[in-house]
DNA sequence: ATAAGATTGTTGCATTTGCAACATGTATTT
DNA sequence: AAATACATGTTGCAAATGCAACAATCTTAT
């Protein structure tokens, strides 16, 4: 048999936690997208996530926001264009370290939309959390953070 | 202060394990891409992952492969086109359930390339594993699987 | 003081990706 | 037996994404 000749003593990338996470993350993304199709026609899942991030970090400049959502400045700007056009956020000029920047705030309309959407996700969120006991959830969260911290030291995230 | 008027009693998507994983997964992907830039010019990170998947699952048809890597049939076919052109895989016609399918095998050249690349990743992989004790690693793996299984029941992955 | 460098945001372009439509061949239904 | 539905793979197209180049503005160096 052909597979008999294969030397499988080396490890496989697809068995690593990194790739395991990539696949799992795709599942989560697919779920989010499909839920959004049913629930919401006003904004995209990406815009929802950015809106949620802004609501927790009012007054960020665009680049700092880009660093949080791990997208480049170009795409961050484009998403903000869309959210601003729909009056879910407002942008205003300000300074940071004596530099002219465009800062972002969420509007009342944005907050209302965010709250509406979040309430609809609540059941799915609770269902997901019910999968774990408190301790495993903490370990999962801590493990993810460990990975991010370790990679931060090796890789330069050019944003 | 403006933030005082915000009602933060609802949960945030960005605090969920799903999003936590999405961000962490992006870190991992960035690391992989940057390593590949230095290490390898022959194939892309995506092609590497597909090659690794094929090496562990010889003789799959394209759709079954697509289901493993969570990409649609179109992109799976395109990646295979590229890998075949470089002689890292071979495709051949066969039948599955009385249906004509194109199955995929890895070649000797493909295996050699895979082994070469895997050896170069070994140090990074070990460094990553050293972050965890055995138990946390198992919990992480189990948690990811739990999430995927739960989502599988809700979402139809149209591949 | 002038030039070089750095930071922020925008625009253009090429790549990746997913979705829908299509062609081909098989299974099922009527 | 004919028609409908299903499975597989390919092609075309549109949206998302990242990268490089650019403009504007500020800092640092010579």
Explain how this protein is built.
Chain A has 159 residues and is mainly α. The first copy, chain A, is built from 6 helices and 3 strands. The first copy, chain A, has helices spanning 17-39, 45-56, 62-69, 73-85, 108-129, 134-154; strands spanning 60-61, 89-96, 99-106. The first copy, chain A, has a 3-stranded antiparallel sheet. In chain A, strand 2 and strand 3 form a beta hairpin. The longest helix of chain A has 23 residues, at 17-39. Mean pLDDT of chain A is 92; it is low at 1-7. Chains A and B meet through helix 1, helix 2, helix 5 and helix 6 of A and helix 1, helix 2, helix 5 and helix 6 of B. The first copy, chain A, binds a DNA duplex (30 and 30 nucleotides) through helix 4 and strand 3.
Short description:
2 copies of one chain form a homodimer. Chain A is mainly α and 159 residues long. Chain A has helices at residues 17-39, 45-56, 62-69, 73-85, 108-129, 134-154; strands at 60-61, 89-96, 99-106.
